[in-house]
Amino acid sequence: MSVHDAAGAAHRSEAVAVAAERRWAWIVAAIIAVLVLMMVVTGLHWSAMPPSRVETIDVNTVHLKGEFVESNLGTTLGPEGRVTVRLIAQQYSFVPQCIVVPAEMPVTFRGTATDAIHGFVVGTTNANTMLVPGFVATFTTTFTKTGEQLMPCHEYCGTGHEAMWARVQVLPPEEFLAKARGGERLSCVAR
How would DSSP label each residue in 34-100? Predict the structure, then answer.
């Protein structure tokens, strides 16, 4: 192979590599453009059409009247056997500070925030939500293991964020039902 042939082969190899890089650059640019377009369309759609089942609440009166007054916070066992936990997040605490729930029974959490966006995750479970002022977050989960779990705030809410956490005590179903039969709001905070 002559020097001229080797130079021509090197030039063709370089041209093939440049063409492949150009194709990939176009593909990556197209993917980015599609993702940006999806974000814009979704953002415009959701701002015009908010999700259904959105419950709102007046943050100015949340402590004074309605579902989230202090005497109504904590865990309750309804007449139909449904377990509901009501809680409020505020800088820099959860109310109640300690929540009692049963193992192996569905538990519905209903919560809101009064001042900033907060959130929580319960230990290593799938109980995880964001609490936004003016809105009620609702989800249902079942705890499989008994014991105490930590419930930290996972949305940065200010300089005291790192100290914002609560505890969740998961009791065996029989023990929970025995405590809940009195109709009182359950909490593991000493009174």
Answer: HHHHHHHHHHHHHHHSPPSS-EE--TTTTTTSSTTSGGG-EEEE-TTS-EEEEEEEETTEEESSEEE
Integer Cα distance of 76 and 81 in angstroms: 9
- Three-state DSSP state, 8: helix
Query: Is residue 130 within 8 Å of residue 121, measured between CB atoms?
Result: no
Q: In angstroms, how far is CA 91 from the centroid of its own chain?
A: 17
Q: What pLDDT shows up at residue 122?
A: 93
Residue 77: which residues within 8 A CB-CB, separation 6 or more?
83, 176, 177, 180, 181, 183
Residues 6+ apart with CB under 8 A from 140: 106, 107, 108, 109
pTM: 0.71
DSSP state of 185: P
Tell me which residue has tokens 């090197």: 10
φ/ψ (deg, to 5) at 169: -100, 120
Confidence grade of residue 52 (pLDDT, cut at 50, 70, 90): low
Q: Which two tokens stand for residue 2?
A: 């002559």
